[in-house]
Specification:
Layout: H1 12-22, E1 31-36, H2 46-54, E2 67-75, E3 79-80, E4 88-89, E5 92-99, E6 111-114, E7 125-127, H3 131-134, E8 150-155, E9 160-165, E10 168-169, E11 177-178, E12 183-188, E13 194-200, E14 212-219, E15 227-233, E16 238-243, E17 248-253, E18 265-268, E19 271-274, E20 279-284, E21 287-288, E22 293-298, E23 305-308, H4 309-312, E24 329-331, E25 340-345, E26 350-355, E27 359-364, E28 374-379, E29 387-393, E30 396-401, E31 420-426, H5 427-431, H6 438-441, E32 451-457, E33 460-464
Antiparallel strand pairs: 1-31, 2-5, 3-4, 5-6, 6-7, 8-9, 9-12, 10-11, 12-13, 14-15, 15-16, 16-17, 18-19, 20-22, 21-32, 22-23, 23-24, 25-26, 26-27, 27-28, 29-30, 30-31, 32-33
The structure holds 2-acetamido-2-deoxy-beta-D-glucopyranose (2 copies).
Length: 468
């Protein structure tokens, strides 16, 4: 694998200086947007906060930010200043959400929105959609409405906020227990956070060891009715397909969802740990001829796999348990340097994946998945320890790193050091001059005319390109 590119700009002198100072130390263009030493919430008052800490309902060191999601609201009415000119500006309201799964006791809310403010670090988290939905009263839990524990979420192009609730508490603790069935909650960010849907997964689709960790959302029509969600069951090694139109789900069992025992060992900083984790990373490819691929990989793996989503959507194929997948599921013949957690894909088919060596890599799906075509585009041992969440929104990639390895040990960690970070980078700058950016090699490369692109407008989704 080629080493990550050193990003140097400016005049000759600064270029030389930067080359000496920057290369090999800090690379790249992921900027820390938010950071936290410990998470804190918008408690109703300092007294509420104090009593939550006293009663053990809030143990700050047990609250770990895992995923991030961004909603670019519709541009608000253009503001016209009565200044005799037509100067105006469209203001886009951006909302940033994070998940804080209840992996240990003392976590007051599992989905939260970052409270905009002028504090760059330790911004407060406001429970989403509100405190009530995030409050667990142990004796009478209402599984319909209560958000128990959420690992990852997905905001789709239509402003629907898909939340996968694993239904278990204290996942990383000896007190781990399942209190509700896993469920899918869909909120409408464009309509006052109205609940669109609550779907409980049938018990036949949930194993004792199940953990629904990640979700991708595949919209196939302009109104969003024909939509499928693909949900990873990382510890039962399954992929769950949810059909939004028919409000039903089914489970797919396939060998490529399983971990590789020889890749189950991880080392970050000085922490060694073993995780036999299966399918985790998901990314949807461009729509080509009314089909698109789902790219995926197990966490304990260094390979990439893919499958046509039209296959996943055909429920009848998966009635009889484990399928051999010959000719439908594909496995890369070659490997990455290290395991990868989460990944995203651009509209043009550039996969960006987070690696467990504190880096980001890229691969263009037009190339074979071999080391010659996988490139490291960012690496930071300080800022990017254990990336666990990633999204692509517009021309930017957003990621979370959280030093999760420290939750696996009893090692005392520095109480004052930054542990959780939300980072942002521009996709075009990250992949520029790597083989992932086909435009740099062929400046005028055109997408094949049968590629359909989806983009949002005020009337819903619009397809460009040919639709058959
Ligand atoms: C939960 O939802 C189910 C199905 O909609 C309903 O039958 C049940 O009464 C609800 N339970 C509560 C506590 O609201
Ligand atoms: C689903 O798969 C079955 C079995 O292979 C096949 O007969 C059927 O045509 C498929 N349905 C669709 C909609 O592709």
């Amino acid at each position: 694998m080629v080493p990550y590119r050193c990003r140097c700009s400016g005049g000759l002198i600064t270029t030389l200086v930067a080359a000496v100072l920057v290369c090999g130390a800090v690379a790249g263009t992921m900027e820390v947007e938010y950071s936290w030493v410990y998470v804190d919430y918008t408690f109703a008052s300092p007294n509420h906060r104090e009593s939550a800490i006293k009663s053990g309902k809030f143990i700050p060191e047990n609250c770990v930010i895992l995923d991030v999601d961004i909603f670019q609201g519709p541009s608000e009415e253009k503001l016209y200043f009565n200044m005799g000119s037509n100067s105006n500006s469209a203001v886009t309201k951006q909302r940033v959400f994070v998940t804080v799964p209840r992996i240990k006791p003392g976590n007051p809310a599992s989905v939260a929105e970052i409270v905009p403010g002028d504090r760059p670090s330790s911004v407060l988290l406001a429970p989403y959609p509100n405190w009530k939905a995030n409050t667990i009263s142990e004796d009478t839990i209402n599984c319909n409405d209560t958000i128990i524990s959420v690992f990852r979420t997905k905001i789709d192009y239509l402003g629907r906020f898909w939340i996968v609730d694993v239904g278990t508490l204290d996942q990383f603790d000896i007190t781990a227990r399942s209190v509700c069935p896993p469920k899918l909650l869909i909120f409408d960010l464009k309509n006052g956070d109205r609940v669109i849907k609550t779907y409980k997964f049938p018990s036949s689709q949930v194993k004792d060891v199940s953990l629904f960790t990640n979700i991708e959302v595949d919209i196939r029509d302009s109104k969003g009715r024909n939509t499928f969600a693909y949900i990873t069951d990382t510890t039962a090694y399954k992929l769950v397909v949810y059909d939004f139109k028919n409000d039903e789900s089914w489970v797919i069992d396939q060998a490529y969802f399983y971990p590789y025992p020889n890749k189950a060992h991880f080392k970050i900083k000085d922490v060694n740990f073993d995780l036999m984790d299966g399918i985790l990373g998901l990314a949807l490819g461009p729509i080509i001829k009314n089909d698109r691929k789902l790219y995926f990989h197990a966490f304990a793996s260094i390979r990439e796999s893919w499958v046509n989503t039209n296959t996943l959507q055909n429920k009848s194929l998966f009635q009889n348990g484990l399928i051999d997948g010959c000719g439908t599921f594909f496995l890369s013949s070659e490997v990455r340097e290290t395991q990868s957690s989460v990944q995203v894909m651009t509209d043009n088919g550039v996969l960006i994946y987070a690696s467990m060596d504190n880096s980001l890599g890229c691969w263009n799906i037009q190339d074979p998945f071999i080391p010659k075509y996988t490139h490291t585009i960012y690496k930071s041992d300080k800022d990017f320890q254990f990336p666990t969440g990633m999204k692509i929104v517009g021309d930017k990639v957003w990621a979370v790193s959280n030093q999760l390895q420290n939750q696996f040990t009893t090692m005392v960690i520095n109480r004052n050091s930054v542990k959780y970070r939300v980072l942002v980078g521009r996709v075009d700058e990250l992949i520029k001059r790597t083989g992932c950016d086909k435009r740099s090699a062929y400046e005028d490369i055109k997408m094949p005319s049968n590629v359909q692109k989806l983009y949002p407008s005020k009337d819903g989704l619009v397809f460009s390109g040919k639709i058959k």
